[in-house]
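Internal QA ticket QA-208
Title: Verify multi-chain structure generation after dependency bump
Assignee: T.L.

Test input:
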Amino acid sequence: MEQYYDLTPLLNLIHTWLCGWMPEWLALTLEGIVVGVFILIMYAVLAIILIYMERKVCAAFQCRIGPNRVGGKGGLLQVPADVIKILTKEIITLKNADRFLYNLAPFLVILASILTFSCLPWNKGGEILHMNIGIFFVLAASSIGVLGILLAGWSSNSKYTLIGAVRSGAMIISYELSIGICVLTMVVLSGTMDIQAIVANQADGWNLFKGHIIAIAAFIIYLIAGNAEANRGPFDLAEAEQELTAGYHTEYSGMHFGFFYLAEYLNLFITAGIATTLFLGGWMPLHISGLDGFNQVMDFIPGVVWFVGKTFAVVFLLMWIRWTFPRLRIDQVLTLEWKYLMPVSLVVLLLMTVCKVFGLVF
Amino acid sequence: MFFTFIIVVILTAVALVVAAMTIAHLIAPRSFNPQKGEPYECGIPTRGESWVQFRVGYYLFAILFLMFDIETVFLFPWAVVAASAGTYALVSAACFLGILILGLAYAWRKGALEWN
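Actual output:
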């Protein structure tokens, strides 16, 4: 049961080996460069996979075929081709735009998504930023993104972008509350904010099953709010194509626009990844008590496969929601959050605490 | 160790944007046209100021958000020890939440959540 392919000894071994024949600052610099390159590669590869997946899933929901020409039958090279194309597009800055803020906005959006991305627990001992307030840090870092969106919309000096940014800002900060309270519910259940400890707590059952129906309610609220946080699904009114052309990034062209697109898809993955960590056991294998043979077979699958598999399952769920429901109006979006999700999530938090204090959870 | 890596992550984010923008500047075409600098508005020239006024409703929601966001921040330390602190902490947190729910109910009653 104890083998979850722990990466910590391996990483420590590499660190001590590097420190053996070079000064420590050089070893740390080298490790930093490797980690940075690793993040960039993962970021790019995941974005390409997610965009391809979205196009195929969307096509399936609309009874189309989706990309099928570029790169063989499945259209596998469509997204890399799009990336190269977007790099060769001219970057236009508007005449009256606030240059500094206009160029700063993509930095903030990408920074928020990379900071949260590096907190995801890929495996036992396999996360880049490990800290004892992990999940709190994720909430804090992800709220930098809304700043980038507001700046992008305001600094472009266009009516569409301003309306898109204000809508998006109001929506994201509202749904952040529900996300915060759902996370709080799981922190109460686990008794820790450390992401690895939250995952380790789920060795005897995922939080979704441990917390009875309360955890399932929190999971559903988290999915709805997470969809809104990533500016997707029925909540994509910030970039409602029919009314605002593209919302807050209307005036960005070429690679400048690419950053917002990239961050949107990675935020989808991060939302799903945090849902996996909090509710579905992170890298923990699926265990059914009583079936020892089954459990042992499950233990042989590495944690990273479990994490990525569960996360993509949640991503598929989010895409399903996106392509099924029609877009809401801004007042409906805010009503949904403030009159339904917010009171319900507060009640869920209280119920979970009562259950935890009186020992009613598994 | 931790601070090294958080700096590494921040630098990676900056490097990604800078590198991609540099590549784009190197290979992207550049042609001047005064029309390109205009903000997009369905193809017609912009009328009036671009920085238009927007609803005060957004502002009200931002104020409400502040109240509840600070509440969440206050509740995090409590949530970590909620199980071990027992009934007393539960009752105090419930009172705290109750006052906030009263605040939400007040805002609701006053019509701050309506969109007219």
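Spot checks passed. Chain B has one domain: 2-110.
Status: verified.
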